[in-house]
Amino acid sequence: MIHVSQKNLDKSYNHLKQEAQKNTANGNAKLLLFVYAIECGLKALLLRRKHITDTFKFVQLMRSEGENSLNHDLRSLLTKLNSGLRLPENIQFKTRSNAPETVPLSDLHQALRY
Fold this sequence. Notes:
55% of the residues lie in helices and 9% in strands. It is mainly α. The chain has a two-stranded antiparallel sheet with strand order 1-2.
């Protein structure tokens, strides 16, 4: 895992969100940018709420509390934030060949890349 500061997560969130909004095609590339923007935003918010400046310190704290490390799982990030928001366990999207596919939300970023 590459560790980043909360400030850089904020910058990435804003940048990815802007790039996704500029992308006029309503396809997987746009959705992938939004997924990564959401991930960066949730991680930045989590660090801010815990008063931690970077992901390295956050991972150390989580390990000391017996929790799993940070990953791409948006559902897990929302749970860590105690947000009360729920996302589906699986999500359906259209592949590049226009065929519907269902994948676990935690793997959506991988599915959208290919």
